[in-house]
């Protein structure tokens, strides 16, 4: 059971991730019995410390599950063609099931163009336009990791979403927009009345205050305050900004005094994201092997 903080139940991501990783380990074992080793290829361009750290976390998780994890580290001065050559090599390798290029890449390179050159079936970040399209029309394919992590977290804690009002603050391509598509789908763990608000909706607090589930997906520290939360509502903090190593979340901690349940300031949605990534790798391996 989640623990209590002030009046709100806390919804940590770690138990959710553990449950997903246990399922993923079982699926990996089934694949290995058939002689298939799931493989996550990663590409890092340049020497950004934070990006290198994220790659290490993903590789460590892949290693713990017994995945192969081929890696290519390109210098900061690499050209777009250099990057595409590496992507093409991993695309063509049948032993590679998942492929990601760590974001951000150096400013002289175009991330969106690189993303579009990844084989959509290997796009385990779920961000390729074809996968966004699959999500929009409800076709199977890799789901974007953070939105899928949020749906899984809500389901894990048996928070009802179906038929209820979900308000998402932010319509960004990595979070708010795909989350809205996901939670509006006709499935028991989704099926919500979803409203997306953003800078174009000046009176967004009016919508936020009627949410049964309110999601911060703006990347504006402290934008969600207790007065924006309906008493007893569930508050999910996904939007964050970093000041150096310090994490500044969208959701002010004081919201715990009004919410019925809330993700913790640290260790909420984050841990579910990597779990969704490795789940995407195993599912890609399952699809590739029929
Ligand atoms: N926890 C995780 O694992 C994880 C993973 C991915 C992303 N994130 C975080 O999620 C956040 C969103 O990511 P993203 O890529 O989707 O960002 P994005 O593209 O920058 O989108 C931010 C959204 O927030 C809205 N917004 C910004 N300021 C606002 C304000 N004052 N009032 C109302 N709306 C406002 C923007 O509105 P407009 O569209 O009108 O500009 C935009 O729709 C970021 O903080 C990112 O770090 C977290």
UniProtKB/TrEMBL annotation:
Q: What is its EC number?
A: 1.5.1.5, 3.5.4.9
Where does this protein hold NADP(+)? 170-172, 240
The UniProt entry, under SUPFAM superfamilies, shows: Aminoacid dehydrogenase-like, N-terminal domain (SSF53223), NAD(P)-binding Rossmann-fold domains (SSF51735)
Print the keywords alphabetically. Amino-acid biosynthesis, Histidine biosynthesis, Hydrolase, Methionine biosynthesis, Multifunctional enzyme, NADP, One-carbon metabolism, Oxidoreductase, Purine biosynthesis
One short Pfam name that applies is THF_DHG_CYH
Which pathway, per its entry?
One-carbon metabolism; tetrahydrofolate interconversion
Top-rank taxon, per record: Bacteria
Domain annotation Tetrahydrofolate dehydrogenase/cyclohydrolase NAD(P)-binding: ranges: 144-288
What reaction is this protein's catalytic activity? (6R)-5,10-methylene-5,6,7,8-tetrahydrofolate + NADP(+) = (6R)-5,10-methenyltetrahydrofolate + NADPH; (6R)-5,10-methenyltetrahydrofolate + H2O = (6R)-10-formyltetrahydrofolate + H(+)
**Which Gene3D superfamilies would you find in this protein's record?**
Leucine Dehydrogenase, chain A, domain 1, NAD(P)-binding Rossmann-like Domain
Domain named Tetrahydrofolate dehydrogenase/cyclohydrolase catalytic is located at 12-125
**Function comment:** Catalyzes the oxidation of 5,10-methylenetetrahydrofolate to 5,10-methenyltetrahydrofolate and then the hydrolysis of 5,10-methenyltetrahydrofolate to 10-formyltetrahydrofolate.
Assembly mode? Homodimer.
Family of the protein in this entry? Belongs to the tetrahydrofolate dehydrogenase/cyclohydrolase family.
Name the UniProt record assigns to this protein? Bifunctional protein FolD
- What species is given as this protein's source? Phytohabitans kaempferiae
| Gene encoding the protein | folD
